What does this fold into?
Amino acid sequence: MARIQSLEMRGISKSFLEVKANRDINLSIHAGEILGLLGENGAGKTTLMNILYGLYLPDEGDILVNGEPIRLRGPKDSMRAGIGMIHQHFMLVDKHTVLENIALGFDEAPFFFPHRAIRKKIEQLSDQYGLRINPDKPVWNLSAGEQQRVEIIKALSRNADLLIMDEPTSVLTPQEADELFEILRKMILQGHSVILISHKLEEIMSICDRVMVLRKGCLSGEASIEDVDKGKLAEMMIGRQIAAAYDKADVKPGGTVLDIQDLHVDSDRGLPAVRGLSVQIHSSEILGIAGVSGNGQQELVETITGLRQPLKGSVTMMGQPLKHVNARDAHTLGITHVPEERIKFGIVPNLPLYENSVLKQHRDAPYSSWLRMDYPVIKNHAGDLVNSFQVDTPSVNARMKNLSGGNIQKLILGREISSGPNLLIAAHPTYGLDVGAAEYVRKQIIALRDKGGSVLLVSEDLDELFMVCDRIAVMFEGEFMGELTPDTWTIEKIGLMMAGSHG
Amino acid sequence: MYIELLPREKVSPQQNVLFMAAALIAGLLAVSVVFALNGVNPAVAIFYIFKGSFGSWYGIKETITKGMPLILIGSGLALAYKAKFWNIGAESQLLAGAIFATWTGLNWGPHLPAVVMVPLMFLSAFIGGALWGMVPAVLKIRFGINEVISTLMLNYIAAEFVKFLVVGPWKGASKGGYPYTDDLPASSILPHLSHSRISLLLLFLAVASALILGWLVYKSRFGYEIRVIGENVHAARYSGINFFRTSLLLMAVSGGMAGLAGAGELMSIHHYLSYPDSLSAGYGFTAIIVAWLARLHPSYTIIAGLFFAGIIVGGDAIQVSMGMPIAAVRVFNSIILIFLIMEDFLISHRVRVRRKNHA
Amino acid sequence: MLDIIVSVLTRTIVAGTPLLLATLGEIITERAGIINLGMEGLMSTGAVTGFIVSYISGSPWLGMLAAILVCALLSAIHGFVCISLRSNQVVSGLALTMLGIGISGLWGKPYIGLPLPNRMGHLNIKGLSEIPVLGRILFSHGWYVYLSVLLGIVLWFILRHTSLGITLRSVGENPKAAESQGIAVNRVKYYAVLAGGGLAGMAGSFLSTAYSGSWNEGITAGRGWIVIALTIFALWQPGGAFLGAYLFGGIFVLQYMLQPLGISPNILSMLPYLSTLLVLLLFGLTASGKRKMNAPATLGEPYVRGER
It folds into this structure.
């Protein structure tokens, strides 16, 4: 019998510095129920759930279990109360085995020889819920789906009655996602309850019993799943109907800009990540690359932008081969790059905006000579970028880290395409941005194409790819499963290709 | 109740000075406690330290004398630390400079005039320090060896090598049994201001190079790349900065500056190569604190270098007047450094004491 | 000839003991994600504390205990600066070294060169120590030697076979994951730093109360720095610490053995430092070696609780 028959959050508010992440939110859930928590990135879903998991203390509000108020001062309190959480980025120690990960911080793990007791526990749980796993494998050796199973076992072993899952399908293939839902259904039958955080409408409709929608930190809607449809949910989520595909100028793709032949690349672990890939991108063309992340997209992007050494094969830009492993050479050939982890790679947070506005171009005229940086010219250039790409900043002297994510991305994009690139490589350019900023970024990418530029757009957001691309290739385990054009693409086809079947 | 540390968005220049003063005062208080525990009246000791260094013409002149090597080394270290290249090897880069300069002086000095010799000595010392400094850069970039460990090991290796030279192949014929090389010829010696040990040329060199290095870090392309590497290595790779070349170059400059300090000590003070302890006198380590007090701005090492030179001179003074061991200066310096790094954090964070929620 | 070999090996184990103790300490510290470069200073303070307390009380055991305590306290400064204030671990460690050397100079001044009347005793295990050859090499040592071996085995056991070991390793590899399982990450880090400091203190007191039986400035002779390198050499494993400590102990002994052969003592003194670089170089030469130098993932990075 589950200990949590009902759970309620009342009047929850939480701020970080000046940002109000949650404002006066009420939430309730009952045993045997799957509650969908819907909202865009930054709507406050994760913050709310971190409060429920004891990671943050709310500034205001109460949490009640079975009608009794409880205090959650840390994850241990939440676990004791029967709440388990599975984060979007798994909280697993890569170098440790499955067993050691389950044993970490586990009350039932004996001090001496914890491995033995935990092995039994894992076997028992995997029988009960159909969670297959090899307890002795190190985590880095597991697929994303398997890692998620480890997280579920971890939560269940702590007697989690209420399981919070943060974007659980974002790293899964459609087939793996189905398997996950199967497991969740089994859990509910045994009296558990699940809160599913997502921004995928499809998913919410197919598995949840009830849905709550957050927008900009506030609760913007709540309904039983029978009472809503996708359009209605989208309206609650973004405040208006889904935008249709963007307008594009009617230009035909021109000559070949980038030519990749039989490319083989290894990952950091020395495993093959890109296997014999060939593709061409033309001028006035946006090629989208779809696929679950971790299928070699990152390695492909890094190779084209000069950050990674290919094993075999060639990358040719406008007839010039990319020879050395150096981002400078790629830059000189006219390849520009909006990197996936924009804060980690794309900017230097502690330097002022104007110094960030020439990162990479800093060696080019007129920004510097061999010895001296020409800061007046650089500041002018930064000012131009801020104006023409609508970067919201007090001045070009502001430290980069004080800008919001959207404004950081606008500056990076502006910096990369302002010099009139032959080719833009954009990896997940709108991930984590608010709607306005995302739309702006997409429009700039299209504008670049309309002006004759070419773009390679890697994204996990299928809607985005449909809205923007001229052509979509689906990547799976380092190979292209097929290419689709607007007249042939459907969600179903892409879904199958993402799972590894050839188109 | 619990304490929360929140990042501070902006720090005004006044706050900067205020915090640093507070750190120095808190450091002095902590030093006082240690001195008092050791049975020394801290007020008297600290008074004598500053009286010894800044309280008399003699003290001031000695402070400037010891400040010059600290400025030279400290500005070079600040440059390296800007790139988060933790060069702990200034001690041996100084020795490498001194070895090269000694060789040049003994072999060429008798044949060339001072106008040629003095620049030549400094040049060879810079090259010596630079070459020795580039070793850890190569070891780090090509072989992944942590620079803290390699520079430390190189310190010991260079020190033993100098000992080997002065008791062995380079032992001076004119020095009796002592482990010294012969005196450098007159053309390789720097003249002093009267009644002091200050060489004006060396002073000019120290101040000028600190200013030039400051310009390099904040206004040059090299400096831009150094700062990008230091603040975000990933962004450095993304932007195609040549890691190997930049690291090699910055360690050449950093080591070269220490080499210059070695030549300065040799040409102005000692006039011959002797045991490493007497030549470097711990400048290489003290300069680390100098760079930190200067907030890693090479130009500010002019002030920070003189401050710590004062502590050294004052420390010598209390050795004589109060019978305190040289270790007292080390304690003093290290405690000040600890408070400076604590201040580093506190200036970028606000401390907020809150009552516990759900109380 | 056999006699010489037996004598070299016996002395190797003795010379390796302080390296082993302090390396075990640094392994614990680094496993929790904190680099402590202050080992040289801590060992020095441990040496002086151990000597003074042994000298005054007459008990080398009390000296050892005091050295452990004082050095644990001293390393707490490093803990506070690096864990609570999240400051730079490299610079803080250097400051700790200077402080440790300074303090030991200050405290030890009146005791320089005094012989210790009662050094830490030897333990000739009856029966075992009479075994030819091996008996002398393995079973004729002082308490410190056996204790260090025991501590090494205990640490290996803790890391491999206890939940405490899993906790410690996780804190250095992925503190967020540990925190999410309700582990007080920073508290674990503090304990690790304190334990590491204590072991460095024990290594220091071995030098002054068992190895040389007197206190002198510079008694640690750079061993604290070699320990930092040995931790990498050991790949953060207690087993590797045994290997590395005795290997470098052997190099220390060799230094004295080769001197009569007419090789410059200064060149020989370079040996430990040159070999340290050489060993690290050999690791760095191959890609697989580089991969093996697999430091705890968050080594040197401060941990901020609940950071978004």
